[in-house]
TrEMBL record:
Pfam families: DDE_3. Residues 6-129 form the Tc1-like transposase DDE domain. Coiled coil: none annotated. This is Tc1-like transposase DDE domain-containing protein. One of its GO terms (molecular function) is nucleic acid binding.
Amino acid sequence: MTVTIWRAPGNRYHQESTTERHRYGGAGWLVWGGIILGSRTDLHVQSVTMTGHIYRDVILEQHVRLFRGAMGAEFLFMDDNARPHRANIVDECLQSEDIIRMDWPAYSPALNLIEHVWDMLGRRIAARQPPPTCLPELRRALLDEWCNIPQD
């Protein structure tokens, strides 16, 4: 599990800057969305833990391939270098679909625009009143807030 923390200088150990997370025993969720200048894909939320097979079958085959077809030859795909995204079956799928993956350094989330969108989405969920209290409410909140993120 990778945790990325973005906070203002001087807030390193402030209580509001830390969240306790339980590493094992929780439900696994796949949350995926894509962005492009001035637009976005639908948000995909599924109760499953991400693997290379899931990523290929659910995300690449059902979403990225179709999005690439709509965009044409200029489509350039960027992911976040997570381990399932680098599985051999994923590379084979991208190659077979003529999807070009953008090269960029691993472990550099500040360079990946979607990481800023995930941060914004998380902040919007955290600011909801009342906050989601169960998984179905969280799923609905994710979908609602994704649609409300400004496109500018």
